[in-house]
Amino acid sequence: MKQKQKNSIVAQNDRLPERAQQHNGGFATHEHRHPHSHGPVPLIVSGLTVTYADGTPALKNVSFTLAAGEKAALIGGNGAGKTSLFLTIAGVLKPDAGEILIGDIPVDKDHLMTIRSKVGLVFQNPDDQLFMPKIYDDIAFGPRNFGHSEEDVREKVRTVLTALEAEHLMNRSSLKLSGGEKRVCAIASVLVMNPHVLLFDEPTAFLDMKAKHRFMDILASLDQTRLVATHDPAVAAAVAERVIVLDHGTIAADGPSAEVLAAYFSAI
Predict the structure, then answer these.
(1) Disulfide: which of 62, 196, 200, 235 matches 48 by Cβ 3.0-4.6 Å?
(2) CA 9, CA 121: separation in Å to the nearest integer?
(3) Sign of torsion over alpha carbons 228, 229, 232, 233
């Protein structure tokens, strides 16, 4: 089932950003910074409209800008459009209208390979990103697809796992890992591509409280421009200074975390 599930993702997106699509004791603390990450760049979304193949609207005239290095949370009910927004930013879904820029590079068919090395998407379920016999091969998948030498691949994998304090998981199978360990390995499979922008889709789903706090330590250690989709107000408040609310494919609110979260949760 895992291989079948992964093959479906490959067909859809060629391994988001070629693996940006791409826990337990393997969580970094605030002092650990990924040593080879590119500098953050702005994420600019302008007038974005997306419709599914069956005619269902997913996003309607969505516009916002994240400054380089800005950390924002994305909240909204099921079906609000959060995952659709992420897939469009990553170049998987094609918009009907509007524009997305990663720095000064447009997300379009002419720049997909570049975008997939600059945008890292971590899925809600880490099993969607971990399918190889060993964690090493899961993390090596992206660099290998981009034609790096095996020596370079080994160095990249070791570097990212060391930065996340998870080198001990390198030769393990994801089938034998805890939920928290799987999460950090999924993050490693994205960070190994050195993205400029990071997208996390419900990153604390399936995690117990201890693993959740350790995961938030990882987020705090990253300097990329970041958008985190979550249903958890505590996570949103902890990892972002700004919150964007999606409601039925449109932006219902956008502002400082404390202010937006208070208004949003008092209204539901």
Answers:
(1) 62
(2) 12
(3) positive
pLDDT of residue 11: 32
Give yes or no for a contact between 206 and 223, defined as CB atoms under 8 angstroms apart. no
User: Angle formed by the axes of helices 150-163 and 179-191, to 10°?
Assistant: 130
Q: How far is residue 212's CA from residue 203's CA, in Å, rounded to a whole number?
A: 9
Digit-coded pLDDT (tens) for 13-28: 333 333 333 323 333 3
Domains of the chain: 2-266 (3.40.50.300)
DSSP string, 126-172: GGGT--SSSHHHHHHHHHHHTT--HHHHHHHHHHHHHHTT-GGGTTS
- The amino acid at 173: S
Burial of 206 (0-12, 13-18, 19+ CB in 10 A): middle
Mean pLDDT calculated for residue range 215-244: 91
pTM of model > 0.70: yes
